[in-house]
Amino acid sequence: MNAFRTTIISATAALIFVLPSLTNAENHHAKSPTFKSTQLTDNIFMLQGKGGNLGLIKGKDGLLLIDADYKVMSSALKTELAKHGGVEKLNYLVNTHWHGDHTQGNHALGHHARIISHENVRKRLARREEIKLFKMISEPYPKHALPSVTYDSQMSLYINDEELEIVHFPSGHTDGDSVVFFKNANIVHMGDHFFAGFYPFVDVYHGGNVLTMAKNIKTILGMIDDKTKIIPGHGPLSNKADLQAFHNMLIETSAEVKAMKDKGLSLEQIQAKGLSKKWDSWAAKSFFPATVWISIVHSSL
Predict the structure, then answer these.
(1) Burial class (CB in 10 A: 0-12, 13-18, 19+), 61
(2) CB neighbours of 259 closer than 8 A, spacing ≥ 6?
């Protein structure tokens, strides 16, 4: 426990150093209150705003949305939904996990849609939570913004001639992660199990673990093919090769940190030594520097 606490303190210190450049993870996306829409099929779209990427399916059964971005984006999101029938047609909203950049839109959309999530997401949204590394506080959500439909391991949802398989992958990004498979369209929304091309934030305080995330992604790689379109939690539309590269990064950077740890190096010494140069491009695109990623891996070990 003391070693774990030391790791987190060191990670926090590193983040305090870079907080001016972070200005929260939201700035990794567009700074203006609009959404970029990418059409994946006749009726399925990827939407990108300030927070996590959204998935949308429209049709005669109404709308289903995956994730809801920050609260500040809700007006822009309603404007975007108006292009597809309007928020009044929104029947379902899936939360892939509890973090605010994916769920704050619940406050506006929960008046219109049934919210679906893993059971741990409802528990965390219903109480006060803190993400210590980013010094973020999440106050309890009101009743209408909480998931009203929860599941334990897996559930199916049929809408607009599409079968959605919503699967819980435990202890990856958090303890309540859902990955959503569009079975007919061969599309998968990864939530924050996948940051495309850069180091992910893994919430070790709330059940996340880098090594388990890697195991989960290996499983998912076996469930998709080279034609699968992948919506990452953050980053551009991706494919299986991109997800494989992300998996390789998780495995190899973890191995590098473990090798140094096994030699008796402290976290601070590992951070000073750093990772292989091959990962510099990943660090350059990330919300935080390699020293923080090392601390997250170190905690997971």
Answers:
(1) middle
(2) none
pLDDT at res. 1: 39
Structural domains in the chain? 28-239 (3.60.15.10)
Q: Is the whole model's pTM more than 0.85, yes or no?
A: yes
pLDDT in tens, 113-171: 999 999 999 999 999 999 887 788 999 999 999 999 999 999 999 999 999 999 999 99
Residue type, 219: T
Give the percent of the chain with pLDDT over 90. 87
**Could you give the CA distance from residue 270 to residue 285 in angstroms, rounded to a whole number?**
21
Treating both helix axes as pointing N-terminal to C-terminal, what angle do 290-300 and 240-262 enclose, rounded to 10 degrees? 70
Classify strands 54-57 and 63-66 as parallel, antiparallel or unpaired: antiparallel
CB 230 within 8 A of CB 241: no
